[in-house]
Amino acid sequence: MRCLKLPEERRELFAFPYPITIWRDPPRSVELALAVAGDFGVKKIYTVGDVVTANFLAAGVVPNAAAIDLKTRRREYVEITTRFPHVLKVRNSPGYITEEAWRAVQTAVNNDGTLLLVEGEEDMLSLAFIALASDDSAVVYGHYKGALVIIPVGAYREIKSLLKFLKEC
């Protein structure tokens, strides 16, 4: 896949919480996300973000793969005790999905137990996971206003069309 960048004029479009948003604190948010996943027949869960990944792990759920950058939006360090057998370091600038990041997400989708440790920012990788994951998967990430967003890929594959709003690097 090619490098893509989020243009500044499209930022608001990507700040919208797609499509199932859970406005509850953990661990209830994780419980509800797992219930949604069950309702949609989800077999694989990919988490994007330090806090979301930490919340799933705290609830005893190890995602099939995760992407973290060791920061929250408040820029504080978040320590995550991982149970991922594979750790892959990747560079990805804020607002981008680099070619390196595309390859890393593909590796994570193909190899359960992969943690992507992102130098830069992992936020846009949720879209890469949606584009590359199988229909029996869900992508879960944190919304900047505090909600948990879950996207059952098979039911909401059209979200992949957001890629057309990105520009080539």
Automatic annotation (TrEMBL):
UniProt pathway annotation: Cofactor biosynthesis; coenzyme A biosynthesis
Reactions listed under catalytic activity: 3'-dephospho-CoA + GTP = GDP + CoA + H(+)
Keyword Kinase: yes
Record GO biological process: coenzyme A biosynthetic process
Database matches in InterPro entries: GTP-dep_dephospho-CoA_kin
EC number, UniProt record: 2.7.1.237
Entry binding sites for GTP: 50-52, 69, 71, 122
Family of this protein: Belongs to the GTP-dependent DPCK family.
Function, in words: Catalyzes the GTP-dependent phosphorylation of the 3'-hydroxyl group of dephosphocoenzyme A to form coenzyme A (CoA).
Identification of the protein by name: GTP-dependent dephospho-CoA kinase
Organism: Thermoproteus tenax (strain ATCC 35583 / DSM 2078 / JCM 9277 / NBRC 100435 / Kra 1)
